[in-house]
Amino acid sequence: MRKRLFWYFGFALLCIATAFVLRFFSNTRTSVEVSTALPTSKPSFSMQIISLAFSNNGEIPAKYTCDGDGVNPPLEFKAVPPETKSLALVVHDPDAPKGDWVHWLVWNINPTTSGIAENSVPAEALQGVTDFGQKQYGGPCPPSGTHHYVFKLYALDSKLDISTFSDRTALEQALAPHILTQAELVGLYSKK
């Protein structure tokens, strides 16, 4: 009886130790988590958004900021799901002193578009009002420190019927029920 009790106690102790180790290692991941109010996309494709001007978590060249020409960087879209009816792009700075700052809103991008060329907007795509109060790309211009600029691409099961006076809140409310998948590219910039 004592041996059996000893084995039960040992087994229970082993289970507790294993649970502790698994919990410890699952909390020590080194990844950046981006909070969003939108629902998680359906995991079916590995859609990507990339730029030839900078790598993910790399520095955005000054040309695409307030220290340069302030034009949008070139972007490429890969592995867009075949059932996609339109794409939407939100560019924002979560590190802005006054809260998340919107730099660009573009929607109803043709899903066969392979990207957005430098200093351009895809044909027939619509632009919304950014936090600069304009309907166009506003380049990074952090007041101090290094900021993260998130280029978030959404594949949607529908075109959006919203006004070009829409801001980020209106755009995200309209696209939320239509998200097939999403991808993001993060660029860094410190004002020169």
Looking at the structure, the CATH topology of the largest domain is Phosphatidylethanolamine-binding Protein
> Could you name the CATH class of the largest domain?
Alpha Beta
Widest sheet: strand ordering: 2-9-8-4-5-7
End-to-end Cα distance:
75 Å
From N to C, what is the helix and strand string?
HEEEEEEEEHE
Largest sheet: 6 strands, mixed
CATH superfamily of the largest domain: PEBP-like
Compute the average pLDDT.
85
Explain how this protein is built:
The structure is a single chain. This protein is of the alpha+beta class and 192 residues long. It folds into two domains: 1-30; 48-190, PEBP-like (Phosphatidylethanolamine-binding Protein). It is 17% helix and 28% strand. The chain has helices at residues 2-26, 168-175, and strands at residues 48-50, 58-59, 75-78, 86-93, 101-109, 115-116, 126-127, 146-156, 179-190. A six-stranded mixed beta sheet has the order 2-9-8-4-5-7, with helices on one face. Strands 1-3-6 form a three-stranded antiparallel beta sheet, with no helix packed on it. Strand 4 (86-93) and strand 5 (101-109) form a beta hairpin. The chain is globular.
Brief digest:
It is built from two helices and nine strands, in the order αββββββββαβ. The chain has 192 residues and is of the alpha+beta class. The protein is globular, with a radius of gyration of 22 Å.
What layout of secondary structure does this protein have?
Elements (H helix, E strand, L loop, with lengths): L1 H25 L21 E3 L7 E2 L15 E4 L7 E8 L7 E9 L5 E2 L9 E2 L18 E11 L11 H8 L3 E12 L2
